[in-house]
């Protein structure tokens, strides 16, 4: 299409968006806290609270305890530099002085959620004290943020005004939903109104800035807060404002351009952004489309999700180490960042809730059970900032090669030598999975994502409690113990890999779901999924293996070294080298067998050319490994 015609059409569609109506959402999310993890997910949250999640403030005190960035250390014109804990940034770089707000608020979001969802009373008290402190920093006009009056809403260059708020207000939303604390709710509403007064809708341009950078671009996810406030209040002003933000972002010069509307609609545009931004920016686009129902945005959403799907590795990790430098995923050459795993999971969860597209649930399970679990250290409290599916060494650099200055391919409870972004997000991801496990629809309750949990909610006046007992994804059997005052319709998603299922209760099938009427009183539903090993072709001539939702890997023995000890006892940065460097090649047709101890395959040792039988295990349990053969 001629570029001028395209631009004219775009401008016309931008004008007409505001006249459209918000679209109905397929599912209604439950309140945070109505779904609580049990089983291994709860155990892992408790371990994180004992580990990196509960101790990050002590592990990096300069970035958290010593910088009261929303309070007495708010940024003013007088401040020229600050320790932001990021490699090569901070000194004399006014652009990223907002950075500690991200570190603090993303960490708190995970911490508050984990403390309440896992029932950890001591950490709940710590969370409460923090919230009281933050609420005390609010000014009379409602302002909550990182800038003193001389800078707020007046910055003409790169700034973190909306980003520092987005990350903090997500914490306040979490805390409010978990505790129903009225003071937190009022503080949040007035803080959001303060933004709307100072950046008036359609009469201001929050994303217009000289030398725009990462913080300004992150600020677009202020729409997370607006979307949830719309759901909780029913007030359309919040999504109208979200639509305004996406429009303003699309028309300004910004550092992260992948999600800008003209670029999405341009067939020859190649994604090249900072992965985290590109994956989190899926959410503002989703919210903008549902706010307007505009055909142009539907087209954009379809195109953007299609582009992202090309960037996903077998484990579900979306590439970008940290920038997206290729248009298709690679299992060895391009890593993914822990932040990106979290952000894409969150974006997919929002799209699943609004669209009801069940393949998104399969995608979320794949990334949470494989990429996210597989980038955690299996036994020590630390995570990989960057990880590849085929991980042959974790010595700081990528598979012991590439950029010699790279430090992110290792296990750390902080990663302060790179940036303290991934550890906070590793503390958030499980609670975002949990909050999306169950939703309501017009008829009853829907289990969208599977795993051990307990749901306690109301369907109108019907009080319902469900205990979902399972080792899933490590086993595919479930017991749902349901207590309800009145009958309701229960739907349970049947993952795409299920070949057969058995249920102790009669059911009907509806698309990707089974459904059954549940009586009042107590009902026990026993459900089991049957499947077999699946072989998947990937990239060029590679094969990977899955059983149920789990992707399997060949683990390699590794030599561990302590790269750094922290002043807090028990915390280390760890690196790994293979004891013996070797890889295997699989030819389709060779023998494959499933046993409870793993997937057995016959593969060729590329060094000796001998055919060997090797045993693959879930990626979640591995450090060094081969996933594609
Ligand atoms: Zn990160």
Structure report:
The chain is α+β, with helices and mostly antiparallel strands and 629 residues long. It has 18 helices and 26 strands. Strands 17, 18, 19, 22, 23, 24, 25 and 26 form an eight-stranded antiparallel sheet that branches. Strands 1-7-8-12-15-14 form a six-stranded mixed sheet, with no helix packed on it. The mean pLDDT is 95. Zinc ion binds next to helix 15. Zinc ion is lined by residues 337-339, 385, 421-422.
Short key terms for the protein model shown above:
six-stranded mixed β-sheet, Maltose phosphorylase, domain 3, single chain, Glycosyltransferase, 21% strand
Main sheet specs = 8 strands, antiparallel
Q: Give the helix/strand class.
A: alpha+beta
Output mean pLDDT: 95
Percentage of residues in strands = 15-25%
Named at the architecture level, the CATH assignment of the largest domain is: Alpha/alpha barrel
Q: Work out the helicity level.
A: 25-40%
User: So how many helices?
Assistant: 18
Gyration radius (Cα, Å) is 24 Å
Q: Give the bound compounds.
A: zinc ion
Q: What do we call the CATH topology of the largest domain?
A: Glycosyltransferase
CATH class of the largest domain: Mainly Alpha
């Amino acid at each position: 299409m001629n570029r001028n015609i395209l631009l004219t059409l775009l401008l016309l569609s931008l004008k007409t968006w505001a006249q459209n109506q918000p679209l109905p959402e397929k599912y209604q999310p439950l309140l945070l806290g109505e779904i609580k993890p049990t089983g291994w997910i709860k155990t892992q949250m408790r371990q994180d609270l004992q580990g990196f999640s509960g101790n990050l403030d002590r592990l990096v005190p300069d970035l958290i305890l010593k910088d009261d960035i929303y309070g007495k250390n708010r940024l003013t014109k007088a401040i020229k530099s600050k320790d932001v804990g990021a490699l090569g940034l901070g000194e004399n770089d006014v652009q990223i002085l907002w950075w500690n707000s991200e570190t603090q608020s993303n960490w708190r979001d995970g911490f508050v959620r984990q403390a309440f969802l896992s029932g950890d009373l001591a950490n709940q008290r710590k969370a409460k004290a923090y919230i009281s402190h933050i609420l005390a920093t609010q000014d009379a006009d409602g302002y909550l943020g990182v800038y003193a009056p001389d800078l707020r809403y007046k910055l003409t260059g790169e700034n973190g005004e909306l980003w520092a708020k987005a990350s903090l207000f997500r914490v306040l939303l979490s805390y409010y939903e978990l505790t129903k604390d009225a003071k937190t709710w009022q503080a949040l509403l007035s803080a959001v109104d303060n933004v709307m007064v100072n950046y008036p809708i359609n009469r201001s341009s929050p994303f217009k800035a000289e030398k725009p950078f990462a913080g300004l671009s992150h600020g677009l996810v202020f729409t997370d807060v607006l979307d949830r406030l719309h759901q909780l209040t029913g007030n359309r002003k919040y999504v109208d404002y979200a639509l305004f933000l996406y429009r303003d972002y699309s028309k300004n010069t910004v550092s992260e351009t992948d999600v800008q509307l003209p670029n999405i609609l341009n067939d020859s545009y190649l994604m090249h952004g900072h992965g985290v931004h590109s994956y989190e920016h899926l959410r503002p686009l989703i919210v903008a489309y549902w706010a307007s129902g505009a055909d142009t945005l539907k087209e954009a959403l379809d195109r953007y999700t299609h582009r992202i799907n090309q960037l996903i590795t077998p484990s579900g990790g979306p590439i970008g180490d940290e920038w997206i430098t290729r248009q298709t995923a690679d299992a060895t050459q391009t890593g993914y960042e822990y932040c990106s795993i979290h952000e894409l999971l969150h974006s997919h969860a929002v799209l699943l809730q609004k669209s009801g597209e069940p393949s998104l649930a399969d995608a979320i399970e794949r990334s949470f059970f494989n990429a996210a679990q597989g980038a955690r250290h299996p036994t020590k409290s630390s995570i990989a900032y960057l990880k590849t599916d085929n991980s042959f060494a974790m010595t700081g650099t990528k598979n012991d090669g590439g950029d010699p200055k790279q430090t992110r391919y290792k296990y750390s409870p902080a990663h302060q030598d790179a940036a303290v972004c991934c550890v906070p997000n590793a503390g958030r991801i499980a609670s975002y999975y949990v909050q999306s496990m169950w939703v309501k629809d017009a008829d009853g309750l829907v289990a969208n994502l599977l795993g051990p949990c307990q749901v306690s909610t109301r369907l109108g006046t019907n009080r319902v409690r469900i205990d979902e007992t399972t080792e899933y994804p490590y086993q595919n059997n479930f017991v749902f113990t349901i207590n309800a005052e009145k009958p309701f319709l229960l739907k349970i998603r049947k993952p795409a890999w299920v070949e057969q299922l058995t249920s102790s209760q009669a059911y009907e099938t509806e698309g990707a779901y089974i459904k059954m009427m549940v009586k009042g009183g107590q009902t026990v539903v026993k459900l089991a999924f049957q499947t077999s090993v699946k072989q998947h072709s990937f990239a060029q001539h590679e094969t990977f293996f899955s059983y149920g939702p789990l992707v399997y890997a060949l683990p390699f023995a590794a030599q561990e070294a302590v790269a750094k000890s922290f002043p807090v006892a028990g915390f280390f940065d760890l690196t790994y080298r293979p004891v013996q460097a070797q890889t295997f090649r699989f030819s389709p047709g060779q023998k494959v067998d499933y046993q409870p101890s793993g997937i057995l395959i016959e593969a060729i040792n590329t060094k000796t050319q001998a055919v060997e039988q090797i045993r693959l295990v879930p990626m979640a349990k591995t450090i060094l490994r081969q996933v594609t053969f």
